[in-house]
User: Fold these one by one.
Assistant:
Number 1:
Amino acid sequence: MMKRARIVLKSGKDQSVLRKHPWIFSGAIKKIYGEALEGDVVDVFDNKDNYLGRGHYQPGSIAVRLLTFEDQEIDADFYSLRIFEAYEYRKSAGILSMESTNAFRLIHAEGDNLPGLIVDVYGSVAVMQMHSIGMYYKRDLIAGILMSLPDQRIKAVFDKSESTLPYKAKAEAKNGFIRGSQENNLVTEYGYRFHVDWLEGQKTGFFIDQRENRKLLESFSEDRRILNLFSYTGGFSVYGMSNARMVHTVDVSDRAVKMAENNVKLNFKDQEKHRGIVSDAFKFMDDTSDDYDLIVLDPPAFAKHHNVLHNALQGYKKLNRKAIEIIEPGGIIFTFSCSQVVSRENFRKSVFTAAAGTGRKVRIIKQLSQPADHPVNIFHPESEYLKGLILYIE
Ligand code: SAH
């Protein structure tokens, strides 16, 4: 076996690792002894040669994603145990026995102490997305472990890492089934049915992370005129349809709007009160003359990096300001940010600034977050990425 490369950190740069944060930034590295190739398991030491942990190496801003802080092998047993722990956590959190729901996240990367690995389960299909080459190399092993979980629910594994692996990696990943084959792609969430397009859809095909917030919207939708902006496949629209007076579903992607319309059809015989519109959300709000008393704002991550944080906050401000301006008195806004680099406080501040500019009275009904199957590793605050507010506009 090849000797593992040793990475020695600069003095003082071990602080975050000692607090169990799993990322080593390239700037923290003093020297690499031996050859570290993309995807290799490497050992990390402090400036005084004390062992700190072991993880996947990758040239780039985050140079090492630590898998363990102990002196343990990163072998098949390691992956089996971590995946089993993720499974057990979800059992305890009630995710595996959810009522009429069979879509959930089984592995949430750092949130489950498996940096670089996302696994979403849709009925009997597991969809994997690898964000590091080190994880990608283990995809076959991981797929095998997923197929043999205690409840035997997974019958097929789809690898969807083509677009999530780092650009520089020459892995030439191709999306496709690596276990089993195409199964029924219909999932149930709180009794509502959705088609999930794991072949072509965004992320792993469906935004599972909004499940509890969609359920909440259902309880606020009685007799409301709903505008669902950034709808994607219409999750919020479907939940709103049962009680609302009307639902307008807007997305800039023609494909998304078609899928949203299909999902509405899948659940409701009468679709009279639903309308799908392909449009830019900002432009739609500028042009519309319809009255709305419940608006959903669930835009894609405006900021993927810290250096564009300012622009992102401006984006949230502009979007929320427009919605607060046009909503009817007594209206309700569900507003979200899914940017990892935008903190809860920053998001709230940008909504506050937006509200202040409108002259309307705004109350926070509730603060929203991500569900239990997207756990936040307390040592890795970045894994808390979804934040939202339900606002009441007088
Ligand atoms: N609310 C959705 C997830 C939203 S994902 C759910 O519950 O499933 C974000 C969506 O915003 C994507 O579908 C993307 O096509 C859309 N989008 C991105 N920019 C947009 C814009 N300027 N106007 C309208 N939609 C946009």
Number 2:
Amino acid sequence: MSIFKTVSKEEEDVQRHLDEVFSKIQTRDPHEKEFHQAVLTFFKSIKPTLVKNPTYLEHQILERLTEPERAITFRVPWVDDNGKVQINRGFRVQFNSAIGPYKGGLRFHPTVNMSIVKFLAFQQTFKNALTGQPIGGGKGGSDFDPKGKSDGEIMRFCQSFMTELVNYIGPHTDVPAGDIGVGAREIGYLFGQYKRLRGSFEAGVLTGKGIGYGGSLGRKEATGYGTVYFVQEMLKNEGHQLAGSKVVVSGSGNVSIYAMEKAIELGATVVACSDSDGYVYDEAGINLDTVKQLKEVECRRISDYVDSHPSATYVEDCTGLWSIPCDIALPCATQNEIDEAAAKQLVKNGVKVVAEGANMPSTPDAAEIFQEQDILFAPAMAVNAGGVAVSSLEMAQNSTFSSWSFQEVDEKLHEIMKNIYQSCIEAAEAHGEPGNFSVGATIAGFTKVADAMIAQGAV
Ligand code: NDP
């Protein structure tokens, strides 16, 4: 039986095609469940445009789009502080270069495997297209766990990782950045090793660099700020505003911290945030200076928040976060962190907006619940695109040997987020799904990539 709902004859034909392609993907790589999930969600969303434009099927666009142009795995040997050799696995998936050089972050986390990297690189392709910048899609990383490692170990790991990665990247071919476990420190070590191996200063090869050597002001804040700018547009369209609303944010990393910062600046109260061990609830509003000190400076656990804020509560269960009543939920930690039960709880507690700061944080069941219940729900592809958009602005500054002010970058980011919002709204409306941001974002991104692929022939 088909996994897609049927309505008309044209839809039936499209559906058969989607089923066939999806089945081939499952057969070919049966263990890649995160990648399957991303493809299935994507297929559901683009169905209306395939029905309207059969030319995409004639060009075998779906088969081509779901196969990465290149997927690299490599050994990463490094020596720990005890002199023992450790081995990790490195990945880079160069998914699609139809509209520009591959672009996407590196994730260092023990859960990283080919399925995770493929799902991230696949979604990155359409997200990047949606930004309006000339960048293709890629992603990479390693199953290396930076937690508990010394600075020297992190540096030696990054140097070894780059010693292999250098063979595949460059300012005009593939430009990595940070993601989970890869922040300014790691990008610094990776850039240093790239420069040494190449023997030239190619600033545009990595983004998220330190400001003193080619980084862009506003990049650190971009994903979190962009998330909140997108939410602001959603609320504005409904005649509401952020000021006075209660917000719950998962995680306490790069995306979370700057989403909290912008939400607070715009008058919202952030009542809870988390890490992978548990969450803190502070009814008076989370003190962001404390979170920054704990997470950005001291690399400590969110549980330590209550030491300086005794009226706050710490609960050792990171998923329990979603049972806290709020108007706006911003999942900013990791994939599949909101499941069906969490989504039901959020709806029951009266959530009005769910915007995905992290990549694929809602399971398909959870996303369906938000859509059925008419919650304002926006997917990662649109919501967290601000990070890569400003990475692209960093590349532009590097290539022209210029550096823009924070305000200039932030204004451009704000404009890009408004444009992304508009593209989503228009694409959703044009395909008979008004207000469906998942359909709007996916179709707007897909159309750009697919049209470029057709124009470039079977490559
Ligand atoms: P960070 O490493 O800076 O922070 C990740 C945060 O999520 C940490 O607080 C971490 O807690 C928490 N976390 C990780 N795994 C889990 C888990 N299984 N359950 C609960 N919490 C968890 O990463 P980023 O902020 O950079 O990235 C967060 C998300 O945003 C990812 O999905 C990433 O792909 C996406 N993203 C990031 C962009 C960027 O510019 N950084 C751009 C676009 C998307 P702990 O410290 O305990 O590990």
Number 3:
Amino acid sequence: MAIRKVARLGHPVLREKTREVSREEISSPEMRRLVRDMVETMHEYGGVGLAAPQVHESIRLAIIEFDGDDERYQHPDKDEGQPLLVIWNARVKVLDATPSGFWEGCLSVPGLRGYVERPSKIEVSYLDERGKPKTIVAEGFLATVFQHELDHLDGVVYVDKITDKTKLAFSEEYARYHAEEGEPPIAE
Ligand code: NI
């Protein structure tokens, strides 16, 4: 396993539209190694998700994992945590467009936090690590993490979706002036 270098905002790979991957390719040694490296990289930098373009791979792959009792990301919506999800070729359908707002962060935009509103309930169809079709319905925190990661696969970064630019802040200023109970930042 290896920790991969994370692309930062401004690198063109973060703005590319990724390609889908065949089931045969998903089970290849190269892709299995990539998934393992992404998990190690996400753990190393303390993210709750990571998308393949962030490690310079322009393919439709993301991972999500977070601990329910991780103090950095405490939130009423994520009491139970989310065991590792390996998400290939994901497609999203909005089930409830009512906006749900969170302060987000991104391993590709280090040191910043921004407030983003996204649909509160979605359905995601994807292939799992074995290439098996799966569908998951996500709400609240998990829905936001999904949409943040899957946006990366279309060349979209969370800062694009900050509608109120006064709600973009460095982490320290976020903690000092913007953090409210129940509204912790998300690092992805
Ligand atoms: Ni991100």
Number 4:
Amino acid sequence: MKSVAEGLVLVSYGSHGIVQLEDGSRLPVKYRRQVGRPFCGDHVRVSLSDDNSGVVEVIRKRRNHFLRADQQQREHIVAANLDQVLIVIARRPLPSRDLVERYLLAVHSLGIEPVIVLNKVDLEISEPGAAGEQVLSHLEDYRALGYRLIETSCKTEPGIQGLAQILTNKTSILAGQSGVGKSSLVRQLLPDLDIQVGELSRVTGKGTHTTTTTILYSLAGGGYLMDSPGVWEYGLWKLENSAISAGFIEFGQYAQTCRFNDCRHDSEPGCGVKAALKDGKILAWRYRSYQRLLEQNDQTI
Ligand code: GDP
Ligand code: ZN
């Protein structure tokens, strides 16, 4: 009888991938048409062959999945079973207006915990007065709303310790615009990155294309860090209007008192969100970004 084992998908290509078994060993696996293709981070049952390879027999139920968008704003799954998305922004390049909001909405709609990472805190803001500077001036507000915010520098103090700590025993992925320092953070969080990549190449007998493939790396202190090159650098998939209002988490309790169930919190009478705004219970800048995002969404239909 063939033996079977449970494993974790570290990397997944079209019809094959690499799985880590519970004892830590890694082996190349193939997929079956009837079972389908697992993604990086999926838990799978593998039947083992004598030549130290395997076949994925069952893909275990996913807790969640992580998406990227292509140029047509279509969704593609790139990973599964994440605890956190690290939304990386920087003092340089400054984030564009509404960027953090959009990322937070997207993470919320996927049912994953967001963490805002402000990198390059060693630098001064290069364009005082720019819209992106306003974004940075709102960061403490995010904290007050209940979001986690970590400051890092890959060059000097405060380093990456604060970030490393919250990754322990979790599965996290980095997302953000090009140039904010994602690769630098990965290299610092994974001092043995080259060894891990070399190990993956050894398992398949081929090179590992770290610039195009989503890979699950092991963190020395426990937990996993996923690197998915280019993810969210150029934009997101189109969000529903309902995902926009749901993602403004502080609106929730007030929206329950809106007269209309489908209230857009715009010009409807008896709107609980507008009332809370007037009473200063909702931040004016948050409400304005909500309006802008709804407007932009309406225009792209
Ligand atoms: P990515 O495109 O998000 O992967 O960004 P990179 O990691 O390639 O970093 C872009 C540039 O920013 C590189 O020149 C890095 O050396 C620099 N960089 C990254 N992190 C920091 C930081 O914390 N402080 C400073 N001053 N520069 C940084
Ligand atoms: Zn309303």
